[in-house]
Hints:
The protein is of the alpha/beta class. 40% of the residues lie in helices and 16% in strands. An eight-stranded parallel β-barrel has the order 3-4-5-6-7-8-9-10, surrounded by eight helices. The N terminus is likely disordered. It binds 3-methyl-2-oxobutanoic acid. The site of 3-methyl-2-oxobutanoic acid has 11 residues, from strand 8.
Amino acid sequence: xxxxxxxxxxxxxxxxxxxxxxxxxxxxxxxxxxxxxxxxxxxxxxxxxxxxxxxxxxxxxxxxxxxxxxxxxxxxxxxxxxxxxxxxxxxxxxxxxxxxxxxxxxxxxxxxxxxxxxxxxxxxxxxxxxxxxxxxxxxxxxxxxxxxxxxxxxxxxxxxxxxxxxxxxxxxxxxxxxxxxxxxxxxxxxxxxxxxxxxxxxxxxxxxxxxxxxxxxxxxxxxxxxxxxxxxxxxxxxxxxxxxxxxxxxxxxxxxxxxxxxxxxxxxxxxxxxx
Length: 275
Ligand code: KIV
């Protein structure tokens, strides 16, 4: 583990993939928040948040689209550079944008551009077809997080932002995909909007950290979109929680999210899909 000095002069830990793996091994939970700019990234970093996700959700939160599909690789590179300047301690995860990793060559080029901008791990959405891509990225020294369940880049195939894995065969396939992703070298898995029992099964079936959003309380980590915890989302999803209301400041809201994730008090059943 490396130590660095934060803005406050307090010695702060640099969160790395091996450090987060140790948290999973020890049964300790960690927090992930999205950020797309320097100031919020600094606030999230300075609260000791383990991971910052430069999510392609910026297509909605920053650009005002109704999906992540218009987000380009240039957009992701731009926002990654803005985030890393404020966040020396959090692990920086960055989304591979829509249709930029349809084959292995494109995937390596996309991931390399994100890594050059400051990504420490890239996240890709999909199903079994992302497994050989993860294997190639791993071979090339690029850490990958496999995103399963509600993968927003597939919104039109799903017919909306709907819970995935309710069907028995879909659930079985998701478990197989998670195990295959780990075997291909994935360093983390992210599950979005899947029933709590399925997320629990996957979290127990793999040894790498599993991050959840709308996936119940058993995953190793929880991620939320920063606008959701600050009450800025017009129609928040079931899993969103406004921490600003009670905390009174952005810094305290971010800290409260981290505390509740680590002590297991977030998420509650009302933030999850029990079946
Ligand atoms: O793009 C994003 O912010 C995400 C999270 C919602 C998991 O992928």
